[in-house]
Amino acid sequence: MKLGIFTAAVVMLASAVSAESAGELHEKQLNAIDANNDGFLSKDEFNAFSDYAFQEMDEDKNGTLGLEEAKPFLDIKQFQNVDQNNDDLISRAEYNAQMNADFSSADQDGNGQLD
Ligand SMILES: [Ca+2]
Ligand SMILES: [Ca+2]
Ligand SMILES: [Ca+2]
After folding, report:
1. Is the entire prediction scored with pTM above 0.70?
2. HSE (side-chain half, CA atoms, 13 Å) at 64
3. What is the whole-number distance in angstroms between the Cα of residue 44 and the centre of ligand 1?
4. Where are the domains of the chain?
5. Which ligand is nearest to the CA of 41?
């Protein structure tokens, strides 16, 4: 999977469970995202993970991601791509738009699931 902000969100999740080894980490990430453990990532599961990731990254809980909040997960180029109106904040709408675009581009056969 070649994903943009979704990858950043997974990195966030990885850092949240940083005590684990790389192998266990991978397993844990997948289990955390694939809620029903069927080995596929549905749009619902993706959305739930997307919500969770945003809330985790939004440290001051003001509903937007500033440069400082996003910096551990996104480089400046990625940040600017997501920040469509160039106000140096990633709004929830901008974040959701990017996550949806990432999901669509990863879901190459268009069946609404990632595997
Ligand atoms: Ca699933
Ligand atoms: Ca914030
Ligand atoms: Ca913005």
Report:
1. yes
2. 11
3. 9
4. 5-107
5. 1
